[in-house]
What we know:
Helix content: 25-40%
Number of strands: 16
Bound molecules: nicotinamide-adenine-dinucleotide, FE2/S2 (inorganic) cluster
Strand content: 25-35%
CATH superfamily of the largest domain: Nucleotide-binding domain of ferredoxin-NADP reductase (FNR) module
Amino acid sequence: MMYKVLYNKKISDNSYEMAVVAPLVVKNAIPGQFVIVMKESNSERIPLTIYDYDKENGTLLLIYQVVGASTLELTYAKDEIFAVAGPLGKPNEICKNKSEFRNKRIVYVAGGVGIAPVYPQVKFLNEEGFNIDVIYGARNENLLLIKDKIESCANKVYYATDDGSYGTKGFVTDILEEHISDYDIVVAIGPVIMMKNVCELTKKYNVKTIVSMNPLMVDGSGMCGACRCEIEGKPKFACIDGPEFDGHQVNFDLALKRMNIFKEEEQIKLEQMKARLSAINN
Ligand code: NAD
Ligand code: FES
């Protein structure tokens, strides 16, 4: 079965938004979960967080950043793609157990494309009557995505840009430190180094922190071990035990090391893919 692509458009220098018809995935999805997509039957599998969906017409929205060969190939998806498997992983703890968190003061911290998984959670919780604040950072104003959408469901949005082109000049952690006493729970999603630094800060203030790990994945079903993370000193698989974990228990240094183990191979694959795509499209 192929999956119909409604659109696949560039939304910033390095990110795309794609709409796919996947009614079964959409019917069962809860914020925090992800899908694995494949452009062709012989393409690599790409794990992507579910960014939005429309339960009525079965449309799934995905935002992805072009970081390597497989995401570059995905930008060429026009009418249909081979696979959309999911929803995978565990739902976000707050969205799943709403009543436990009803009286908590919650802030989401999104770094760059990490806003894609943050948005559906904030939207869902807003519909459930929660007042959620968001701290959203990007390198510059042009890389701040879906500002209108996040503002439509958050209580308050604080912006940070590395170059000061919008909001506060600096990192999301600068804003978080200033407001940390306002919150009981932090959910941080973005670059691993950002999540590590958020957790170092929240540990100091003893504020519970949930992070969403985004390691390399292959099968997405707990069989291959590619997505192994160390949580509380024990191995866990992000695809079935996560992707969200208690940030204070994550071994971020190992996660940062594992992220880079295939860097050389990824660069070679990217060059090969560029050559293949230019041969096909010229
Ligand atoms: P980026 O490198 O441009 O950083 C975005 C923001 O994160 C920065 O503007 C800053 O506010 C914050 N940040 C970055 N480095 C920091 C540091 N050292 N200390 C404190 N804050 C810091 O991000 P990008 O290029 O948009 O990349 C997004 C990342 O998010 C990718 O690495 C991607 O893999 C990851 N991601 C994760 C998930 C997930 O589920 N965990 C989902 C989507 C994307
Ligand atoms: Fe293979 Fe998680 S992706 S075990």
